[in-house]
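Sharing in case it's useful to others searching the archive later.

Someone asked me privately for the predicted structure of Beta-xylanase, so I'm posting the question and my answer publicly. Question first, with the sequence:
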Amino acid sequence: MSCPDPEKTAMTPSAPTPVDTSMAHRTAHATVTVRDADGAPLTDTDVTVEQVRHRFAFGNIGFDLIPLANGETSGPVENVFGGAAPDQGEHLAALWLDVFNTATLPFYWAGFEPERGRPDTERLLRTARWFQDRGVAVKGHPLAWHTLAPDWLRELPTAEVAEVLRARIRREVGDFAGVVDTWDAINEVVIMPVFVNEEHENAITRLCREQGRVPTVRLAFEEARATNPSATLLLNDFDLSSDYERLIEDVLEAGVRVDALGLQTHMHQGYWGEEKMLAMVDRFARFGLPLHLTENTLLSGDLMPPEIVDLNDYQVPSWPSTPEGEERQADEIVRHYRSLLSHPSVQAITYWGITDDGAWLGAPAGLVRGDGTPKPAYDALRRLVKEEWWLPATTLRTDGEGRVRVSGFLGDYELRVGGASGTVALDEAGQTVSEVALTS
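And my answer, the predicted structure tokens:
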């Protein structure tokens, strides 16, 4: 994909939002009344408080864990974008689950339904449930996209393409409802009607060119919304220029309900830096919608030359991770996550890959080397997510009315006294009041 420079193409540059090192908008200070199973307050009692989940969506793709979730321990990797060998599954799963709470699964139509009428539903559904059973939220990517549209779709007339796409969206959203409730409803619409493939034109590009961008977006959102009214639906793009801003304006003016905006930042040519990143985020925050940084990569090896326009055009026989690159990646990932969490509009960050094994474009963008050992960037991100921004098991004492003060990042917390426990959710930043009943 190409990656326009958002600094050069912004409609109206704006001052970046200052980094809020206090993270006040991400934290709560809750006065919690702790009661026993009968409702009586537990006064002057030691209570163990421990965070169990972040409210913020720290995401990564779950492609590499599909074989593990399906009991596939050997054989080829059945994933259109490659992936780790199945025998690495258990090891990678442990690393993945120790940091991330949101998984993106691949619903690329060409790989999901290479033969019409034979979708890979059961395999992806088992994978989604595997993540759900481990407390991980699951997102599907994407429902509509011109790239990786199935070849069999090209043979259909445009009107039938539209109907088949509608049916595809209804089927996936319906089959996965309750397990996958967040979707990139449509992907990369800015380039969709003008996308050129030297071999042949795909059917989704033809559809979008003939009926227009906004009607194509409306098709995807309305079919998904009608099938699962409670789903969270994203408009997602890599083109972060003013063209995307105009598309968003047109879509919203047309009355299409968009739940969140997806912003891709594959930084194969180097980290943009905090000022540039926050200026870009500010431009899209003006729409008043939650922002999801849906596809993030930072390299631990040589950077792609700056003159490359379409990242897919860079082809090298080997692209290794290097010690110097790994140190740079670790520094940049901390800066990247700190700056994004400082912006109140950012609701989710999805890193694009746990491992270098089978990584997109062969780039050394993973947080784990091909041999399974964590890079410094993995350790640095884990320290942020599970140490600096995490409350470990802590003993507090209730007052004479059974109250205890819990302070931490927004999320879910477990309170324990002896063999009894209960949970409390810190959902609102600032000062809050709550209560929890402990049961055995």
